[in-house]
Design goal:
By secondary structure, the chain is an alpha/beta fold. It has helices at 2-18, 29-32, 51-57, 75-78, 110-119, 135-148, 160-164, 203-215, 237-249, 273-276, 353-358, 365-382, and strands at 36-47, 58-59, 64-65, 83-88, 123-125, 152-154, 167-171, 174-182, 220-226, 253-257, 265-269, 282-286, 291-293, 303-314, 319-337, 340-347, 361-362, 390-391. Strands 1, 4, 5, 6, 13, 14, 15, 16, 17 and 18 form a ten-stranded mixed beta sheet that branches. Strands 7-8-9-10-12-11 form a six-stranded mixed beta sheet, covered by helices on one side. The radius of gyration is 21 Å and the shape is globular.
Length: 403
């Protein structure tokens, strides 16, 4: 009930304060109810796989890796989304290609990707500064494995035709375009005819891809950037400039990663949506979604979030709006779990010491205190520019209802 009530308040404020061209108002809800479609986006930040994660995931008796426990507490949340997206910040070149490794040149076991698929992710953005950690061979094998699982891959490509093919995610009567670009390749360079392998941030490229997305009648355009300064909790001037231009080109939702810590979220009024052909009159940006899983340690590096955006489409007017913005704060637990060490993503809804102890976690009162502090800071830091959000807290997970 709490989510439904907050979502209604959010919608009301959107209709009469932020939006000048909205079609929503309390008196026409009933008449439009049969003409409304909904679409849920769940977005997280960096999916990283450091050496301690590889070591802890190895089962010596079975001679294989199992990364699934790391995601088991968030699996139910993730599988509730229509489009579930993350930044994949590693490659899968194969053990024979120099062995498995973490930072600074990642190469992860294939089982890490299988765990992502199993937990509910269906879209992976792959353009980042580690895309070429094992050269183009690693890039291409990674792309093939993602494709084999039926997941959507954006940001790295196998050919010019592949790069020029705009990805449209279709579900529930929605057509969502997804684009992805990175600021750098860790000083690696792709010359001439091979520049198609990875999307880098380039004004003309971004503008052209957005224009092509609109030609395909996309209901919303998501652009996921890899940019910013590492470990900085506030976006820098470069990030803001890129975001401003990307909205001007016609993007609706901008997500991002790379700083490995959370940065604030904002709503943006799209002052003249008709001029750029967008179906939304209000945009959204998350400057950095932080780490979702990694071995990086510290209160801000272990803090993450599952961002939840709900889109509403009016079939009569063909307009789309963001009907609610919610988020699930998360924490990467690093320590004893069941019979060994592990890295486990714990959502705020699950931070109950008795329940977690019964599941096999072994943590101190200090760790619980640190998690609670992290969740508190996540709530305040993320939503400092948007007050009409719902934070899923302990005990609320069973009270979530659809509008």
């Amino acid at each position: 009930m709490l989510k439904a009530w907050l979502s209604f308040i959010f919608s009301y404020i959107f209709a009469f304060i932020i939006s000048t061209n909205t079609y929503f108002s309390p008196k026409n809800v009933g008449s439009l109810s049969d003409s409304l479609k909904y679409f849920k986006i769940l977005a997280v930040g960096d999916l990283m796989c450091h050496v301690p994660q590889i070591t802890n995931a190895y089962n010596d008796s079975l001679k294989n890796f199992d990364f699934k426990p790391g995601f088991e507490l968030v699996e139910k949340i993730l599988k509730d989304g229509d489009l579930v997206i993350a930044n994949l910040e590693t490659v899968f070149a194969g053990k024979e290609f120099g062995g498995y490794s973490g930072y600074p040149h990642f190469n992860s076991p294939d089982e890490f990707l299988n765990a992502l698929f199993h937990s509910g992710f269906n879209v992976l953005v792959t353009a980042n500064n580690h895309s070429l950690d094992r050269g183009t061979n690693g890039l291409l094998r990674t792309a093939q494995l993602i494709d084999n699982l039926g997941m959507i891959r954006i940001g790295t490509f196998s050919s010019q035709h592949d790069r020029d093919s705009i990805r449209i995610f279709e579900k529930n009567g929605f057509r969502i375009s997804i684009l992805n670009y990175t600021y750098d390749l860790n000083h690696n360079h792709l010359k001439g005819d091979y520049s198609f392998y990875i999307n880098t941030i380039n004004d003309s490229l971004i503008k052209n891809d957005i224009e092509n997305s609109k030609k395909l009648d996309a209901d919303a355009i998501i652009v996921y950037f890899h940019f910013g300064e590492e470990y900085q909790r506030i976006p820098n001037t470069y990030q803001k400039e890129i975001v401003d231009k990307t909205f001007q080109y016609g993007a609706d939702i901008i997500l991002a990663s790379h700083p490995h810590v959370l940065q604030p979220i904002e709503l943006r009024s799209l002052s003249d949506p008709d001029s750029v052909g967008t179906k939304l009159d209000t945009g959204f940006v998350a400057y950095s979604l932080g780490n979702f899983i990694s071995n990086q340690q510290g209160i801000y590096k272990q803090s993450g979030v599952i961002l939840e955006l709900k889109l509403e489409k009016n079939l009569q007017s063909n307009k789309v709006r963001i009907s609610s913005i919610d988020f699930h704060p998360t924490w990467v637990f690093i320590g004893r779990y069941k019979n060994g060490n592990n890295h486990i993503i714990i959502p705020l809804e699950e931070i109950d010491s008795i329940k977690l102890s019964s599941r096999g976690f072994s943590f101190s009162a200090g760790q619980v205190k640190q998690m609670n502090r992290a969740f508190f800071e996540t709530e305040n830091h993320l939503s400092q520019h948007i007050k009409n959000t719902n934070i899923f807290r302990l005990g609320e997970k069973n009270s979530r209802t659809e509008e």
